[in-house]
Write a structure and sequence with these properties.
Strand content of chain B: 15-25%
Order of helices and strands of chain A: HEHEHEHEHEEHEHEHEEHHEEHEEHEHEH
Number of strands of chain A: 16
Radius of gyration of chain B: 19 Å
CATH superfamily of chain B: Thiamin diphosphate (ThDP)-binding fold, Pyr/PP domains
Distance between the termini of chain A: 59 Å
Largest sheet of chain B: 8 strands, mixed
Number of helices of chain B: 9
CATH topology of the largest domain in chain A: Rossmann fold
Order of helices and strands of chain B: HEHEHEHHEHEHEHEEH
Strand content of chain A: 15-25%
Number of domains of chain A: 2
Helix content of chain A: 25-40%
Helix content of chain B: 25-40%
Shape of chain B: globular
CATH class of chain B: Alpha Beta
CATH architecture of the largest domain in chain A: 3-Layer(aba) Sandwich
CATH topology of chain B: Rossmann fold
CATH class of the largest domain in chain A: Alpha Beta
CATH architecture of chain B: 3-Layer(aba) Sandwich
Strand order of the largest sheet of chain B: 2-1-3-4-6-5-8-7
Oligomer: heterodimer
Radius of gyration of chain A: 21 Å
Number of domains of chain B: 1
CATH superfamily of the largest domain in chain A: Thiamin diphosphate (ThDP)-binding fold, Pyr/PP domains
Chain lengths: ~375, ~280
């Protein structure tokens, strides 16, 4: 059996979300995983520890999450598609080096299977409390991409997507799952190789003497040489020019670099953003939800329709960049918006920001199972 | 021949367009860089396969000065970053050059674990006893009773003995020299670059501008005179007794053993698993 065949388990499977994420990474071409055990993400590491050696991939358990993300950035610069997976406490530890990945434009995937925080919090219960941290967790201004899976199938699909986006934009891409989608068992269809779209980073098409490692292309993304390819390039977390040389005293270089790091995500948002819209077109009440909560929201929307309320669901598949256009358009036509979240109010701030004068009802849930359809239905009724 | 036409034989190892360097006069970092470049040249190192990784601090700028693939990480993380580089491409020769604060305070955990795994990284720690770039604070190697900006009444903390720590953590090669020992340091660097597994060289280096001037060694020469006066070469002596005091500065090679590297074990394991699954 060839290595490629062993890597991709084409077919229908019954697996949990963490395993589906691991298989998605393998399908996307990930050949390096570094991580540290943490509930409820450990199964991703365990699965990859078993699977990676079967086709020559590298699994390593590092001494902590700081080392894990640092090793992932190193592997990415060695030319590997690389990933780490963690939960809230580990995600916090990774934040400084997520900034390094942003600054040195290292394509990588970071999976956060969210549990209840802050601090050690509730290791075995779901949460959506890290979604703002995904965007703002490291210091300084920058853009990243974050996706939110609602099912085990999406744990597979969106992990593939996260790799493609990370490689396309030379940016950390985050898969913001939660304990329920991580541990839930469902049917997963793994497509054949020809059905899976794989994107790899753009390589330089100039000779090493002409190569500038941080000179962007038309999409604001610099083509990427890797270590050992003869380019002899330098990369640093310091503010740097297109050569990669430190320019810590130049306001011009700082402004140009940091604005590009933000713009390369913002200006490509139309290509990046994905939402799922169900009965939104004529809806009076639009529920904006993501992750596991969106499944209860869909059920609530259907029940509302049965009782004569024109409700719709706008599911955020992409959390960052925030799907502003789609949410604003839905708000324009609706009378009210409803946002259920397993936190004290995070993405609801973004919805409020783009919803204009339309009322936005927020339904918070903490410390237990996700919202039930009836809980969301009740708020839809009050908002209609 | 006019002067402009003269090309230094080692200039191909350096990024001349990044010069002048940031280091103070009297700093030992340039000496270490010089010895390293000598070692590369004498070994006819394939510069396409060399990756130099540094952390934060004065010596952290070294990565940028060497004309190879190079990366300047966040503070304390060069070994963790380098671990990913090496595992993803074991053909590369990875040299980590960083300081005592970067490698042993904020980054201490990564050092002991990479040494324990015996991952094939070559680590050079330039130990100047202080945080030079931030203006001279106490660090993990600052000697007892030294004056620094954060120990204005004298340091009460015990410093790490880096060679003892490296040996205890599992390094296959451990040596200490000072920036006065350029010939021995260069030989040691050459030896390290040819060895398998995790290797460590500590270079005790003068920082007259930031550390020396507060500790009765105001000029570069006074710090070098201390190294000359106090250094004793004690090869393969017990690293736990390798003191650094005003009277006695023990240098030499302390460990030189053969031990299979992590990356080799990992790839052997991968081959075994592949063969096994082929049989099934």
């Amino acid at each position: 059996m060839s290595n490629a065949k062993k890597a991709l388990l084409t077919g229908v499977h019954f697996m949990n979300g963490d395993e589906a994420c691991a298989e998605g990474a393998i399908a996307a071409g990930c050949r390096f995983f570094a991580g540290y055990p943490i509930t409820p993400a450990t199964e991703i590491a365990e699965h990859l520890a078993e699977r990676m050696p079967e086709f020559g991939g590298i699994y390593i358990q590092m001494e902590d999450e700081i080392a894990s993300i640092a090793a992932v950035i190193g592997a990415s610069y060695s030319g590997c598609k690389a990933m780490t997976a963690t939960s809230g406490p580990g995600f916090s530890l990774m934040q400084e080096n997520i900034g390094l990945a942003v600054m040195t434009e290292a394509p990588c995937v970071i999976v956060d299977i969210m549990r209840g925080g802050p601090s050690t919090g509730q290791p075995t219960l779901p949460g959506q409390q890290d979604v703002m941290q995904a965007k703002w967790g490291s210091h300084g201004d920058y853009g990243i991409i974050a996706l939110s899976p609602s099912s085990v199938q999406e744990m597979f699909d969106l992990t593939v997507e996260a790799f493609n986006l990370a490689e396309s934009y030379r940016v950390p891409a985050m898969l913001m799952g939660d304990e329920v989608v991580g541990h839930m068992w469902e049917r997963v269809t793994i497509p054949s190789a020809s059905e899976i779209k794989i994107i790899s980073r753009k390589k330089p098409n100039v000779t090493p003497d002409k190569y500038k490692p941080f000179k962007p292309d038309e999409n604001l993304v610099p083509p990427m040489a890797c270590f050992g390819e003869g380019y002899h390039f330098h990369a640093t977390g310091l503010t740097h020019d297109e050569r990669g040389y430190p320019m810590t005293q130049s306001s011009e270089v700082q402004s140009k670099l940091v604005r590009r790091l933000c713009d390369k995500i913002d200006r490509n948002a139309d290509k990046i953003v994905k939402v799922q819209q169900v009965m939104v077109d004529d809806a009076d009440v639009v529920v904006v939800a993501y992750g596991i909560v969106a499944r209860a929201a869909l059920s609530a929307v259907r029940k509302a329709r049965e009782s004569g309320i024109k409700a719709g669901l706008l599911r955020l598949v992409t959390l960052w960049p925030f799907p502003e256009k789609q949410v604003a358009a839905a708000a324009e036509c609706a009378k009210a918006m409803v946002v259920p979240e397993m936190n004290c109010g995070q993405m609801v701030r973004e919805v409020q920001r783009v919803a204009g004068m339309k009322p936005v009802a927020f339904l918070s849930k903490l410390g237990e199972d996700p919202h039930t359809p009836l809980e969301i239905l009740e708020v839809i009724r009050r908002s209609a | 021949m006019v002067l402009e036409e003269l090309v230094h034989p080692y200039s191909r190892y350096l990024r001349s367009d990044m010069m002048p360097h940031i280091w103070c006069s009297g700093c030992g970092n340039g000496i270490v860089l010089n010895c390293f470049v000598h070692a590369l040249d004498e070994l006819k190192m394939d510069m396409d396969k060399l990756v130099v990784v540094s952390g934060i601090g004065c010596i952290g700028r070294t990565a940028g000065y060497i004309n190879a693939d190079s990366f300047h990480t966040t503070h304390g993380r060069p070994i963790a970053f380098a671990s990913g580089v090496k595992l993803a491409n074991p053909e590369l020769e990875i040299v980590v050059i960083s300081g005592d604060g970067d490698l042993f305070a904020i980054g201490g955990n990564h050092f002991i674990h990479a040494a324990r795994r015996n991952l094939g990284l070559k680590v050079i720690c330039v130990n100047n006893f202080t945080y030079g770039m931030t203006g001279g604070q106490q660090g993990p190697t600052t000697p007892r009773e030294s004056l620094t900006t954060t120990t204005p009444y004298g340091n009460i903390e015990h410093p790490f003995n880096l060679v003892h720590l490296a040996a205890a953590s599992g390094a296959t090669y451990v040596a200490r020299w000072t920036s006065l020992h350029v010939r021995r340091l260069t030989l040691s660097l050459k030896k390290m670059l040819q060895k398998e597994g995790f290797c460590f060289i500590e270079v005790v280096s003068p920082c007259p501008e930031i550390f020396g001037r507060r500790n009765k060694m105001r000029t570069p020469l006074e710090m070098m005179e201390w190294f000359k006066r106090a250094s004793v070469v004690e090869n393969f002596s017990d690293p736990s007794k390798a003191d650094i005091t005003p009277q006695r500065l023990v240098v030499g090679e302390f460990v030189d053993v053969e031990k299979v590297s992590y990356e080799k074990l990992l790839h052997e394991k991968i081959s075994q698993i592949n063969e096994k699954s082929m049989r099934w």
